[in-house]
Design a protein that fits this description.
The complex is a heterodimer of chains A (about 350) and B (about 250). Helix content of chain A is about 75%, strand content about 0%. Chain A is an all-alpha fold and about 350 residues long. Chain A has a single domain, classed as Orthogonal Bundle (ABC transporter involved in vitamin B12 uptake, BtuC), CATH 1.10.3470.10. The radius of gyration of chain A is 20 Å and the shape is globular. Chain B has about 250 residues and is an alpha/beta fold. Chain B has a domain of about 180 residues: Rossmann fold (3-Layer(aba) Sandwich), CATH 3.40.50.300. In chain B, the strands form 2 sheets. A 6-stranded mixed beta sheet of chain B has the order 6-7-8-3-9-10, with helices on both faces. A 4-stranded antiparallel beta sheet of chain B has the order 2-1-4-5, covered by helices on one side. Chain B is globular and about 50 Å long. Classes of the chains: A mainly alpha (about 350), B alpha/beta (about 250). Chains A and B meet through helix 10 and helix 11 of A and helix 2, helix 3, helix 4 and helix 5 of B.
Chain lengths: ~350, ~250
Amino acid sequence: MISYMGNRARGYNWIEYLLFAIITMVIFVLCIFAGSVRVPAGEILSSIRDFISGQTENTNTAMQIMKIRLPRVINVALTGAALALCGAAMQGLLRNPLADGSTLGVSSGASLGAIISIAFGIAIPGLSGGSTVLMSILFAFASLVLILSLAYRLDYTLATNTIILIGVVFTMFAHSLISMIVVFADEKVKSIMFWTMGSLAGSNFKNAATLTVALVICGGLLLLHADELNAFAIGEENARHIGVNVRRVKLIILIAVSVLIGVSVSIGGTIGFAGLVIPHIARMIVGPNHRRLLPASLFAGASFLMLADLIGRIILRPLELPIGVVTSFTGSIAFVYIFYNTRRVK
Amino acid sequence: MLNVDSLTVSYGPLKILDNVSFELQKQQWLMIVGPNGAGKSTVIKAVTQCVPYSGKVTLDGKDIAHIRPHALARSVAVLSQNYHIGYAFTVEEIVSLGRYAWKKGLFAKDGEDIDDRIDHALEITGLKKIRHQSVLTLSGGELQRTFLAQIFAQDPRLLILDEPTNHLDLVYQKQTFELISEWLKQPGRAVISVVHDLSLAKAYGSHALLLNEGHHIASGNSEQVLANDNLSKVYNMDVQLWMQQLLANWQN
């Protein structure tokens, strides 16, 4: 009998997951200790001890950094995990290696939702702080449905080029609306611009809690649909033939992805390319089986974004580069490389 | 086992299939034949719920449109004409997806039975040696056999094959048809396949359905359906004479 844990066809590999988790934790610790302001490690350690035991009244630099840096790094890790997970799921579902929130225009749609909510002060009764998040999620889902239906009408195979083209056009459309709103909402321009740059600099523990809930529920849903994603990645018709409830599973995955992208964008703005590049790197390491690819993308996404944030914090010390700038810079180069390679294979 | 009644499929104003009816009993191998554009593959797409249709398709008396996807997949497996895979899945990963419909609950271990079925499917299709190979490196024939192994792993009662030997060379063509004949010997099973090669249809099919431009021309016992009169009408040529002339080339 083939062992349950090591069977590549089954795909589950707990040792691999553990290894990824350890690497992610090491990077997490590194990102807590390093930053634009140099603080001795001993001071940070004692601050962490104080912080955990609830003694947060200490006013030394280390404690101040802990209050700012710790939630920021946690938010960066959770956002990276969420975006990479979404990218991996979309690339499997659509059988398209270039699918991701930013290339499909879903992130721009989510930004538009958040900006409309801020600029027009849309508040949902009983959800004072949550209306921006909710608008992001709704707009992310609506954009995804709109883009996919437009693409499907043009080309029912949902070919890479069609989706990317419509995604680009939709992104431009969303940005034109955002610019229009900026013109009319001058006193809120600064907070609106934040969404288009992508940054987690001011994020707090409340944001982290929101992201955690979204990641546990929606990420969990995606992880539970690894087999179905494998079937979709092979072909939708084949998925139907082996017994996948195609319509239901597709809807579940699209909703989960929209919620994750919506929540991430409402907290950190548009952070481009993390969801595109990370699943590719993960696929190179663990293969295309989603039972391994999804967890690998989750950890790799968290690690990648934490490192990108760290680079943004230290490269122009004491100035900071927004995380979106770092990911867009590295991501666009990787995008060209991947696009070139897929075309060459064809 | 399978009953198709007044099946009609239209794409806009264009009728691809017009009022086609036929039935299939256990242990029968129904060959769907006809010229290009006859609607052969559309019959399969409708029966497998891949295109909207009017009419009624029942499996053991139950309307197939109301059978849940995983329950349907336990009874019916389909081999399509073309597969284009973009990711480097292994042969074994593709074959093991054939067990999807039989998957137990979330935390239940699939058990030895699953491994045995996957091993057996790989064995009989001659893929055991390349089970860990990426499907991106396979030839068209090997890829087709991979999906054949997937449907054997699926363990259905009814096999539906859309030009099953499309990409296969002669050796594997013969092997595939032999494998399916062998598979059909188990009680309670049946096969429907679309074929272009009338010799294969005559050699392996117990029954046949002849279509032309979406219309039912004849169905029933393959000897009667594939009679020269019927075929000549549909193909606008003396099919028997042509086949005999081809065969004559081999006689010396």
